[in-house]
Write a structure and sequence with these properties.
The complex is a heterodimer of chains A (about 425) and B (about 400). Chain A is an alpha+beta fold and about 425 residues long. Helices cover about 35% and strands about 30% of the residues of chain A. Chain A is built from 12 helices and 19 strands. In chain A, a hairpin with a 3-residue loop joins strand 1 and strand 2. Chain A is globular and about 85 Å long. Classes of the chains: A alpha+beta (about 425), B alpha/beta (about 400). The interface between A and B is large, with 40 and 36 residues.
Chain lengths: ~425, ~400
């Protein structure tokens, strides 16, 4: 049970390229402070966002926790709240509608009616092997006519709550939880949250969520997308295709070792190769001592074909919602793949909107090195843990899932007091 | 202030350079900058434009001897001259690229040029021809693969014109040499009249975005018709003659193309005496020919140099609504079975196995990511049969 309020919180990212642990100091009277950071490369234990070698991942997670403890100068208590990122696992979001008839004497909608409509929306038929990760409110419709962000205080006969349910494969999600429990965390202290939601919390501004934004987290193994409009989640999902696919394509197409391609990308040399003005060939020293001249246009072709295909898939998924034209804040690209300028250009061409690179910008604490787009997701997870710790009334005995839903909805709906109404 | 757009026309490869030579002989060419790029020194020497506007690509490697119909060599040669191409093309508002697909320099070089203009964010229109059927199926397939896998995904506006359309008007006894010459001449007329649509002085503009937006649905077939007429030809019936000549234009493929079009871009270019009644009459006629739900984009421009002449050009766009088994230009794809539509009997064509092995690399021992019936772990370029030059 989530019994008492704690100041030390943590976030765990079980990513394809790295297992990362952040420790934060959630001071109720101050701001979130990052006090510890541990990171270990996964070296193949997690592929395309899914754990394929539990033992190796266990060792690496332990090592990351030890490193985080060392940098924080204290040992992380395993009963303390920890948010873990979950991705792949066939995660997608489904739109669900719940209806309630207003029966109050003055036909005024109160928090009770709102909760009733939300609860009814969460009853959703799902395949047996699928489990709900969490849900988020999108908007409300009153009397089949008016669309509102916040229905409370309005007079109506009928209230429809439109929510997004984020769901995934039960067993695969359980794997993530089991790994964290195995290293010693209390089952009731951990919260699995969809990685896209974490990135959303980590880097999007309130203004962007209000105006409408498409967030794309281009990670090593997976690509998560989220669409926010009028501070409500419209759609989200994940494709198990990431920057490693780009590197794998380069490795196969140009006959280069995969490690070499990884090093090119990590050192920033790949970006330099693509942007070089004078050089038309990349010199690759082969093992026999020869130098092979690889045309830079070959690099461009391989990367461009993969990125266009991947962003095209996201575009097709988002297009179903018919919302792209309303996203005034444009796009936000984050994750390790966002560091490649070609990703930004192809993003703009695919979605026909401006794009900015999303990265943690309000980090306070000694671990200032987490300001790269690679850490958007885990920083968002830490912010979620912070908010949970700061605002949630733990004495109110609810299940962790209910607690999480309530907290996420609160985070995503800052504008509750804004009585905004849009006719539909 | 000079508001006229700076427009360049670049011909690549043998067919492209010959088209540029034809364009340079046209009166309207003076408004545009012409460039010729090839790997063959002989073809470039024959091109009738200034030597400073010619570029012998990959000269230190191919030594001006062409690339022997090898698209990979063409791509590498054009890539090696990328710096010169970038400085050559910078500063233009719009660039037309023209060339014949199916052999080496243009087939390999056009995708490189599309990445150059993309990098510098210069709007570009690719007007390319695909080989005559008599040139052989392998060339047609090469052209088809380049269009489908490289130009359509990378370039915004691609107008692919099958040379075979010319046979719809050429007499049967025409020599091959004459057929090629006619092709080059017709492409030259098409390119120059397209360029004039986008040049300055538009009264009712059709701009690059119209074309780009229209062709975003990539799978489409395009044809172009051009009609030229002066008041001397038919003082009374000038408008009718203009439309007739446009409809008889070789690369249009007959009035059927207009009747079946999903969208048309019609452009009227006249001298200063262009009358509003003429414009109304001509566009009304076009509207009568086209289907009811056909999307119409009309543009009217004036150019003093035309005097009492007028040019009517039309681009017809027909979106391909067939399934993926059909190729863009209607040629059978390699490895795909062709079936007779009537009896479903398999044709006698012997099918070849793809020679390239598909590899999943480091993803080999992971669960396959199947989306749209494709294994996404296999590199995109392999799935689309794109050849990659790994250098040497």
């Amino acid at each position: 049970m989530l019994k008492s309020q704690r100041n030390i919180i943590s976030a765990i990212e079980l990513g394809t390229s790295k297992i990362c642990v952040l420790i934060g100091n959630s001071n109720p009277n101050g701001q979130l402070e990052v006090i510890g950071h541990g990171e270990v490369p996964t070296e193949g234990s997690i592929v395309k966002g899914e754990i394929i070698d539990m033992e190796q991942a266990y060792e690496q997670l332990n090592a990351a926790i030890v490193e985080a403890d060392r940098s924080a100068g204290r040992v992380l208590n395993h009963n303390q709240l920890s948010v873990i990122n979950v991705t792949a696992c066939n995660i997608d979001s489904v739109h669900s509608v719940g209806t309630t008839i207003i029966r109050t004497p003055d036909q005024k909608i109160t928090e009770n009616e709102r909760d009733e409509a939300n609860q009814s929306a969460k009853i959703h038929n799902m395949p047996a092997d699928t489990v709900v990760l969490h849900s988020a409110e999108s908007f409300y419709i009153l009397d089949n006519a008016r669309r509102l962000r916040n229905p409370e205080g309005q007079i109506a006969d009928k209230l429809d709550a439109h929510i997004q349910i984020i769901r995934g494969n039960a067993n695969r999600i359980e794997n993530f939880k089991r790994l964290v429990i195995d290293v010693g965390f209390d089952e009731n202290s951990i919260m699995p949250i969809f990685s896209g939601t974490c990135s959303d919390m980590g880097i999007l501004s309130k203004d962007e969520k209000e105006r409408g934004v498409l967030l794309l987290d281009f990670g090593a193994g997976t690509t998560e997308y989220m669409v926010e409009y009028r501070e409500g989640m419209i759609t989200g999902g994940v494709f198990p295709i990431g920057f490693n696919h780009v590197l794998n394509d380069l490795s196969i197409g140009l006959d280069l070792p995969f490690d070499y391609c990884q090093k090119l990308a990590a050192s920033g040399n790949l970006e330099k190769i693509l942007n070089s003005k004078d050089e038309k060939f990349h010199d690759y020293p082969s093992q026999r001592g020869n130098v092979r001249k690889i045309p830079i246009s070959s690099f461009e072709t391989i990367i461009e074909m993969r990125l266009r295909e991947l962003f095209g898939l996201v575009n097709d998924a988002v297009k179903k919602e018919d919302i792209l034209q309303n996203l005034d804040a444009g796009g936000v690209l984050t994750g390790g793949g966002a560091l490649l300028s070609m990703s930004q250009n192809i993003f703009q061409e695919t979605f026909q909107c401006g794009v900015r690179i999303g990265q943690p910008h309000d980090v306070i604490g000694a671990s200032g090195e987490i300001t790269s787009p690679r850490y958007s997701m885990i920083y968002g997870a830490l912010k979620i843990a912070d908010d949970q710790n700061r605002n949630f009334d733990y004495s109110n005995s609810r299940t962790p899932l209910q607690a999480l839903d309530a907290m996420l909805n609160r985070l995503m709906n800052f504008g509750r007091n804004i009585k905004e109404s849009v006719s539909i | 202030m000079n508001t006229a757009k700076k427009i360049a026309i670049l011909g690549i490869g043998q067919a492209g350079c010959r088209t540029i030579s034809e364009i340079s002989n046209l009166r309207q060419a003076q408004n545009f900058t012409l460039f010729a790029v090839d790997t063959d020194a002989h073809t470039l020497a024959e091109c009738t434009i200034d030597d400073q506007n010619k570029l012998l690509a990959g000269s230190n490697w191919r030594h001006g001897q062409g690339c022997g119909g090898n698209a990979m060599a063409g791509s590498r040669a054009i890539s090696s001259s990328r710096t010169q191409l970038e400085s050559m093309l910078s500063g233009f508002d719009l660039i037309f690229f023209t060339g014949g697909l199916g052999r080496g320099s243009a087939t390999g070089g056009l995708p490189v040029l599309s990445s150059v203009v993309k990098k510098h964010r210069i709007p570009a229109i690719f007007v390319v021809t695909t080989p005559f059927k008599m040139e052989g199926l392998s060339k047609q397939r090469t052209a088809e693969a380049t269009l489908k896998n490289e130009l359509y995904p990378l370039a915004e506006v691609v107008l692919a014109l099958p040379n075979d359309l010319l046979f719809s008007i050429l007499p049967g006894d025409v020599s091959l040499e004459e057929a090629f010459r006619t092709s080059n001449r017709q492409i030259a007329k098409c390119v120059i009249s397209l360029a004039m649509i986008f040049a300055g002085g538009n009264l009712l503009p059709a701009n690059y975005s119209d074309l780009a937006e229209l062709l975003q649905q990539k799978k489409s077939s395009v044809s172009i018709g051009i009609g030229l007429c002066s008041a001397k030809d038919a003082p009374e019936e000038k408008n009718t003659l203009l439309i007739e000549r446009m409809l008889q234009s070789p690369l249009l493929g007959g009035v059927k193309k207009v009747k079946e079009a999903h969208a048309v871009i019609a452009s009227l270019l006249g001298g200063q005496d262009l009358k509003s009644a003429d414009c109304l009459h001509i566009f009304d006629k076009i509207r009568e020919i086209t289907p009811e739900n056909c999307r119409q984009i009309h543009s009217i421009s004036s150019d003093e140099s035309l005097g009492d002449s007028a040019i009517l050009s039309i681009i017809t766009v027909k979106f391909d609504e067939s399934n993926d088994f059909e190729s863009v230009l209607g040629y059978p794809e390699e490895g795909k079975m062709t079936r007779h539509k009537n009896n479903n009997a398999i044709s006698g064509e012997q099918l070849g196995l793809p020679l390239d092995a598909l590899s999943r690399g480091v993803m080999e021992h992971t669960a396959a990511t199947i989306i749209n019936n494709m294994d996404m772990d296999i590199p995109t370029f392999q799935r689309y049969s794109k050849k990659i030059d790994a250098g040497k």
